[in-house]
Amino acid sequence: KPRFTFDSGPTVVLGCSREPYNPLRQVLNAVGLGDEVEWLPYNGWGMIERPGSDKEQRWRLELGPKAFEEGPLREFGGDEAVEEFKRLQEATKSLVSSAVSIPAMAMRAGKAALIPLLRYFPALVSLAKQGEELTTGTFEKFMDGPLFQVKNLWLRDWLDALAFSLSGLPAARTSAAAMAYVLYDMHREGAALDYPKGGLGTVVDALVKGAEQGTSGSKVNLRSHVESIDTCPTGSKFTGLTLRGGKKVTARDGVICNVPLWSVSDLIKNPKAKQVLSNYASANGHMSPRQSWTTTEDVSRSTLQHTRQHSVGESDSLLSKCDGAEMTGSFMHLHIALDAKGLDLDNMEAHYTVMDRGLSGDDETDGPCGEQNMIAVSNPCKLDRDLAPEGHIVVHAYGAGNEPFDRWEGISRNSPEYEKLKEERCEVLWRAVESIIPDARDRVVLDLTGSPLTHARFLRRPFGTYGAATEDYLKDGSTPFQSLVLCGDGVFPGVGVPAVALSGASAANAMVSTLRQWKTLDKLKKKRII
């Protein structure tokens, strides 16, 4: 049988093949596996708006200095957009320069977080002057004032599209740090997007190898469902895990937990520990998670909330923050293996963004973040022909974070209704693929469709969500217990493998003394890794 490697990318991954390295590459470097993954750089992607209509537009987003400004930005936004973009880059420059000066391995969760950062005092002072609200908050102050205001409509739509691909939210609700970094890194000298040879699974393999190397006997266990995070009888210390079937895993120092925020409460069974995590308020029941999308019966398309939806009785306790965090939307996926006979891969892009209704959408309630408007189409065989047998390619089309879960809630995966809805909701993905390969359906060797229910089931994502809204990221993974630290895409800096690598490094460092972390930083510096 032919073997196909289906993958989620290429997507917007920066900073793995060339310095300044992102947190993911920094972590791999720190554990001695920086060269374990072979990165295949490429310099842009294709944009297709309103495919198949008389208003169809095709253009290319190219990385590097002035390529964007003198290309699509000037063509579609005009001279004023170019000038505004330059001023925006200048306004966000200090946010980037300070952040890239502090390596991921210097971060740690908890009260001692400041100690290792003292090694990078000038950058620390710069970040302190900008304030926590800006450095860990949203990009709103740069989109709508008071620090800057983006007025050009085309530029606003483009920034929303870029932000949506990062967070599942518009620019004003996306992390300011993430937006500032992308605005810098995509448009600098030597800028490149990166794709790992062999697919993103090779990154996972490298991280697993890093965790298991050495003589400590560390092991990554698969298919090991965790029933609970255990504590001592008094609930004062977290002591390990209980797996499905009753097997116990004992922790030496504590537990690092990277489950989605909304799953934390259910894993903690000890009522005394739960009381502490709830600030001694009632720990019974859950707050209802807020949804970024709202669907009403009389509207054909759901609406993305462009402002944060506060919940009634919002509390400051850790568990209430986890339970009540706003959920971004979910995904539709189409993985297909195609007969590539007659296709000119050399003249295709590795990645396309297809705006089904155009960058600006149909009206003011639509836009780049509208339901099923932005469709990503990844064509990784452009970069790595070994992902499919000779004469074939794999393609992945998906709506990233623009599929409302409530359309799927209550539907059985084994029902005809489910199959029909998958077919209906997948049509826009096929349309996107056919805008690149017109006879794609005739070339199909294998096709696999994933829905929000697939996300919820296979990835253990409540409501199939992309992740938490930026405003509800935990500032760090610390808890009232030194023996429990959180990390993952609900902890700053949020969603995406590079971002999660940072919160993971921060959590790991919190499990050792500041002296040990400081000595580790000395060793990494001596090896010129940081």
What topology does this entry show?
Layout: H1 23-30, E1 39-42, E2 44-49, E3 57-62, H2 67-77, H3 79-100, H4 114-117, H5 121-130, H6 132-135, H7 140-143, H8 153-167, H9 176-185, E4 193-196, H10 201-212, E5 226-231, E6 238-243, E7 248-250, E8 255-257, H11 264-267, H12 271-277, E9 293-294, E10 303-304, H13 318-324, E11 330-339, E12 351-355, E13 374-378, E14 392-403, H14 416-434, E15 444-450, H15 452-458, E16 484-486, H16 497-510, H17 514-526
Parallel strand pairs: 2-12, 8-16
Antiparallel strand pairs: 1-4, 2-3, 5-6, 6-7, 9-10, 11-14, 11-15, 12-13, 13-14
Helix pairs in contact: 1-16, 2-3, 3-5, 3-9
Describe the 3D structure.
The protein is of the alpha+beta class. The chain contains 17 helices and 16 strands. The strands form five sheets. Strands 3-2-12-13-14-11-15 form a seven-stranded mixed β-sheet. A three-stranded antiparallel β-sheet has the order 5-6-7, with no helix packed on it. β5 (226-231) and β6 form a beta hairpin. α1 packs across α16 (497-510) and α3 crosses α9 (176-185). The mean pLDDT is 93.
